[in-house]
Amino acid sequence: MNTLALINILAQDVAKKEGSPWNMLIMVGLMFVVMWVVMIRPQQKRQKELQKKVEALKKGDKVVTIGGLHGMINHVGESTVSIKVGDAQFMTFDKKAVATIVNDKEKSKKDDDKK
User: Fold this and answer.
1) CA distances for 107 relative to 25, 62, 110, 115, angstroms
2) Do the Cβ atoms of 80 and 93 come closer than 8 Å?
3) Among residues 44, 55, 69, 89, which is most buried (max CB within 10 A)?
4) For the segment 72-113, what is each residue's pLDDT rounded down to a tens digit?
5) Can you say how many angstroms the Cα of residue 57 is from the centroid of all Cα atoms in its chain?
6) Which residues are paired to 9 by β-bridges?
7) Total Cβ atoms within 10 A of residue 71
8) What is the DSSP letter of 87?
9) Which has the closest alpha carbon to 68: 45, 102, 43?
10) d(C-alpha 64, C-alpha 100), whole Å
């Protein structure tokens, strides 16, 4: 049983009882706290980590854009990056378009797992 269903059942049980309206307010507050811990906080952490990595981009880093383009950083500007996608093909993207930075160690782990 997931957490939200359990909280919903508890909220209904509290609402059925004749008592203080503060009980319902406490349950709503508890639901907000659980939602923040389960959903919002982890997303914020991932966003901050990606932002730090994007700020530290340098020539030669392998990246994947939000559109799924794989390539290697050729030039890093103030707000843009030039990505080498072929032998003599370069594309310019906003830094915000970089979704992941691929490390050689992570790639070799994935290759070893496949074998």
Assistant:
1) 49, 10, 5, 13
2) yes
3) 69
4) 999 999 999 999 998 889 999 999 999 989 876 555 455 555
5) 18
6) none
7) 21
8) S
9) 102
10) 5
